[in-house]
Design a protein that fits this description.
7% of the residues lie in helices and 42% in strands. It is mainly beta. The longest helix has 4 residues.
Length: 123
């Protein structure tokens, strides 16, 4: 007989970990699930990976693979090979390693990410 699966409730209003980005340009809030961490990233206007996370990651481009849902705002992602895409509210984004990204426009961008955030912006 299979073990009973329990319901789990987590809230980003009380995350288990918060990782701030450089220069106060946002943060990553994490909750842990059995399948791994889930993150809510808040990127403030003017945020750019190469300026506000690169000093933490110490890599030339973001090496995380991301699968996330854009809750609000807009983000442009440019891959190391030059290909690019802009994601906005309501979009599912699947982004492989090797990219830069930045907030487009004057609104904050909020993304819930299920992949690639375990070590994202980890000091």
């Amino acid at each position: 007989m299979a073990a009973a699966v329990k319901m789990v409730r987590k809230s980003f209003d009380s995350p288990e970990e918060t990782r701030p980005f450089e220069q106060g340009k946002g943060k990553l809030e994490l909750v842990n699930a059995d399948t791994g961490p889930v993150g809510r990233a808040t990127f403030e206007p003017g945020w750019r990976w190469s300026e506000h996370v690169k000093p933490i990651a110490k890599t030339n481009s973001c090496q995380g693979a991301h699968m996330g849902y854009v809750v609000s705002g807009r983000m442009k992602v440019v891959m190391d090979d030059g290909s690019q895409e802009e994601f906005g509210t309501g979009d599912l984004m699947i982004v492989p390693p090797g990219h830069d990204a930045w907030v487009v426009g004057g609104d904050r961008c909020v993304v819930v990410d299920w992949q690639g955030i375990a070590d994202y912006a980890k000091r």
